[in-house]
Amino acid sequence: MIPRFDYSFSAGAVWQLLKRIQSRGRFDKPYFTTLFPQADVFEISSARVGIKYALQAFQLNDHARIGVQPFTCSSVLAAIASLGYTPVFIDIDRSLTIDCADLVRKVDSLDALLVTHMFSNPADVRQLRKLVGRLPIIEDCAHAFLTSYDSQPLGTFFDIAVFSFGHGKFPALGDGGVLVVNTTTYSPFLSRALSNLPSPNALKQTWFLAKKSVYSVLYSRFGYSLLYSLLKKKWSDKGLQVSRYPAKDRLPYAVVHHLFDAVRPALPALASQQRRNAFQLINRNRHSFDFIYPRSDDGCIFSVVLITRHRDALYDFLIERGIGAGKHFQHALSWATTFGYSHGDCPSFEYLQDKLITIPCHTGLTDQDLEKINLVLRDFALVAPPVIC
Ligand SMILES: *Cc1c(COP(=O)(O)O)cnc(C)c1O
User: Fold this and answer.
1) What is the DSSP string of 172-220?
2) Is 269 part of a structural domain of the chain?
3) Does the Cβ of 164 fall within 6 Å of ligand 1?
4) Are 286 and 376 contained in the same domain?
5) Containing domain of residue 61, as a range?
6) Using a 6 Å cutoff on CB, does residue 177 contact ligand 1?
7) Is 88 strand, coil or helix?
8) 82 lines ligand 1 (CB under 6 A)
9) Cα–Cα distance for residue pair 155/146, rounded to 1 Å
10) pLDDT reported for residue 11
11) CA-to-CA distance for 72 and 369, rounded, in angstroms?
């Protein structure tokens, strides 16, 4: 089976990292400062931790109301709730990012706003800037590393941006991320708060490497087939639980520095490869499916996304033919409901949330894989006449 994510991690790499577990390595600040020259950058262990500290840096009142799209990772909602703040749900449009018309209706009740560039699709930055006035804004770039809007990198448009290098992200290091602070008056607070976090010890790091190795086996071609044949329905429904906010905030695992150093020189090539893979699938099938993808001329594409009324049928069709598709954020409605979402708050979100499929375009795919995915998509289009919804 073609795995949904590329978590390959060789035994040799594990060994090299185990040997270096005592050497802390260094956060590659110079690299990020080159990418974001106007900003202060800080390393974080995950985007959710970054979101929490960014919100704290805003120094909002105790019952602050934070605008956020309900189609997002549950960890984002958990981070907002961890401070006792209330998420205010803003609808999404067909780009799966914040709907400016709904924002207009709700903006006056907000104390801060989270803007998510979902699946590398940039939010409507120009329009947002007109609407938000002086509202403090976090740019959630968990899907938007090395992507841009109007030739300017995403992560540079609002007060603070967060990036994640966790599982399922680009690059999928399994841990870590960065906070990009564009409004540098927030930097002294963040510098103090983040540098005081504890650093995981060698045992925790070894455990992290062990988990990473297990993931690498489970997400190999063989492991993924086995997992699916054993778990079937359970596997396709997974993810119902809300992602926990970590009980104890911490710095990233120090071995993540070494992981990042190893992948860094290849990042531009990996990003373009992922983009080329995505367009090999999108261009060949755009007449039969409703793909959602960024209109920029370059930049990484997080994964191939399409909307269909036949979501479950297409998912099963792909999986049965060996393609690790995903129903990304399929439980978003249930997650949001746990955090106070009421039916009718965001009609377009409710309509879209159970019609979305992601198809891998990661750099672990070969040309044969892409050809196979193309053929399977074509076959599905023949059986189920295209219904553009
Ligand atoms: C994964 C994800 C996050 C959280 O990232 P972590 O590093 O796992 O905390 C935040 N926002 C979005 C849109 C995500 O997909």
Assistant:
1) --SS-EEEEESSGGGHHHHHHHHHTSPPP-HHHHHHHHHHHHHHHHHTS
2) yes
3) yes
4) yes
5) 11-195
6) yes
7) strand
8) no
9) 9
10) 82
11) 29
Long-range contacts of 19-27 (CB under 8 A, 24+ apart): 20/255, 20/258, 21/202, 21/205, 21/206, 21/209, 21/254, 21/255, 22/202, 23/254, 24/199, 24/254, 24/257, 25/254, 25/255, 25/257, 25/258, 25/261, 26/257, 27/252, 27/257
Residue 228 Cα to ligand 1 midpoint, Å, equals 24
47 C-beta closer than 6 A to ligand 1: yes
73 C-beta closer than 6 A to ligand 1: yes
CA 246 to ligand 1 center in whole angstroms? 13
Residue 216, domain member (yes or no): no
Closest CA to 348 of 130, 102, 132, 163: 102
d(CA 373, CA 360): 9
How far, in Å, from the CA of 53 to the mean position of ligand 1?
14
Separation between Cα atoms, residue 353 and residue 365, nearest integer Å: 27
Residues 172 and 84 in one domain: yes
Residue 330 near ligand 1, beta carbon < 6 Å: no
Q: Of 163, 195, 227, which marks where a domain is finished?
A: 195
Distance 141 CA to ligand 1 centre (A): 8
Residues 26, 9: Cα–Cα separation, whole Å: 21
Q: CB of 116 closer than 6 A to ligand 1?
A: yes
Check if 332 has its Cβ closer than 6 Å to any atom of ligand 1: no
Report the separation in Å between the CA atom of 164 and the middle of ligand 1, taken as the mean of its atom positions.
6
253 within a domain of the structure (yes/no): no
End-to-end CA distance of the chain, in Å? 29
Whether 143 lines ligand 1, by a CB cut-off of 6 Å, is yes
Nearest 5°: the CA angle 105, 108, 109 is 95
Cα 50 to middle of ligand 1, angstroms: 10
Q: Measure CA 81 to chain center.
A: 19
Q: Is 344 exposed, middle or buried (0-12, 13-18, 19+ CB in 10 A)?
A: exposed
pLDDT value at residue 14: 84
Residues of the chain with pLDDT under 50: 388-389
Q: Is the CB of 39 under 6 A from ligand 1?
A: no
Looking at 195, 220, 252, which one is the last position of a domain? 195
Q: Are strands 112-116 and 290-292 parallel, antiparallel or unpaired?
A: unpaired
Determine whether the shortest distance from the Cβ of 142 to ligand 1 is under 6 A.
yes
CA of 11 to the centre of ligand 1 (A): 27
